[in-house]
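User: Continuing from earlier, I have the next pair ready.

Assistant: Great, send them over.

User: Here they are, in order.

Assistant: Folding the first of the pair now:
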Amino acid sequence: MKHIYGLSPVLEALRAGRRPIQKILIAATANQSRLHELTGAAQRAGVALEKRRRRDLDELTGQANHQGVVALLAPINSSYVDAEAILEAFNQSSRLPLVVLLDGIEDPHNLGAILRTCEGAGVDGIFLPEHRAAGLNETVAKTSAGALEYVRVARVTNLVPLIERLKEIGLWVIGVEGGAATVYSDFDLNLPLALVFGSEGKGIRRLVRERCDQIVAIPLRGYLTSLNVSVAAGIVLFEVVRQRETRVRRSD
């Protein structure tokens, strides 16, 4: 049975209501005062709470840091949305579109961290390839700290046709990779935008890189030549936020 664990992820799953929760298991030794908000949210959602031995939760989660809370729910694949639904939503929004393409991110912890950053930056959608990349699972849900319940994630067979589709509807496709001549903060990000981030080891694949309108880099001052992809995503996404909010303030 599919499950998510941890106080924040389970609480956000209750609040968002995107996936049905069958019941919530709580360790019998858990601090009840710490779980007050969760208990209230479960009652309002009509979700049953059941006390279990902590060792039962340890076995269910593979000794993960579940904080004494595990929610049993429907298959997590139900969290994927149709790619066209993300694109069609642009027509109903007055904001400049902002989407993220993840080209082969294999570490679920990195994926979860990126989803959390995307939610905070107001990203309209995230696109993942179906093959050779991490998908949505319990580790991603836990690492995203509840963001998975709010962000719109689609899986596509191939990112290359998606990029062509994004260009057709007016988005600029910007790849982020070390060694590029253009610094990310020097580029005008006040555009309908799709940001592409590559895998932890190989970066953006050649065919995907060749179809980007621009490649930008984050300048590094130390001995290492690259950043963790989730850190890079945070830096560039919040530069987008900064540039767009600065333009709004100036227009006011």
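And the other member of the pair:
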Amino acid sequence: MVIAVNAIFLQKNLLEGYGHYANEILNRIVQSNPEHHFIFIFDRPFNKKFIFANNVTAIQVAPAARHVPAFIYWYNISAALAIKKYKPSIWIQPYGFCSLTTAIPQLLVVHDLAFKQAKKEISWHQQWFYQYFTPKFLKKATNIITVSNYSKHAIEEAYPFTKDHVKVIPGAARVEFKPINWEEKEQIKEAYAEGFEYFICVGGISPRKNLMNVLKAFSLFKKWHKSNMKLVFAGRLAWNYQEILEKLKTYKYKDDVVLTGYLTDELLQKLTAAAYASLYMSNYEGFGLPIVEAMQAGVPVIAGNNSGMPEVGGNAALYADSLNPEKIAEQMQLLYKDEKLREIIINKGFQRAETFNWDITAALFWKEIVATVKVS
């Protein structure tokens, strides 16, 4: 069988949620199925680390699909034409978009409907693109995968024609996220937090991650405790990041806030594992990989009580209204004052993280590949 794969998010040092999900699954599927031939389609120069085995052929197809006109052209014309000669049995689309012109059966992954739930947090042209094309993508796809029951219900409610047609295949923590020893923790704290304990927020600096309310909560926490605790934002400057940078110029505790920029996987893993606690207060998430990764690293999590995050964290995290800085600060204070509770949350987190497993995820994904080919 020849399997075409949209690989445009597999870019070295640029992997985030969608990219990590695709990377972990595809790596396992390619290596577990050496009898099948995979065609990885990139839209720009690619790194050989993503050519997981000898049964992968990589092709580069222009233009780089990173804005609306290029999306439309790449999916429907250039990429669709480029793969025809390989005669694939299926085209895997891991990033929410698919081709509307190809006759090849497509397996579509839609992580969430953030464009409906967080309308003010993406640009107007992307908003238009998602609103107009998402129902078309969902109708065109042979089969649909999402990452949580929350996202499944959101998709089926918004687009009733998808009911009973969406399969849930969740992500997991990368194996490299694990506890580190005391000496390593001290080295990380010295390098990033002046030797002090810190809360960590993992994710790109953008309105969707709700960092303004995290800053307000941190102000309250500092006011209540006068501690040396730091706040570390671990992620790249993403869309519309200027507001938070402007806020930091006059922020009372700006000397206690650290912006790391994009980190290598190894650094992010260590920075997560050395944290006092992880704050994940996004306004909307279909899943939220950093929640599971912090748990697996032995770090207690305080998450937003919205969208798919409670489904991921279960009873192994503390929750707060992400729009209420005082409630967030109260949970930060609770962990800070009650070490016994913190230890309980850490232990529950280890158990919760074990319920998510990339090998199981990849096996389920392969099952959907086979089902998609059979349907066609």
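Worth noting for the second one:
The CA atoms of residues 287 and 309 lie 6 Å apart. The domain at 182-353 is CATH 3.40.50.2000 (Rossmann fold).
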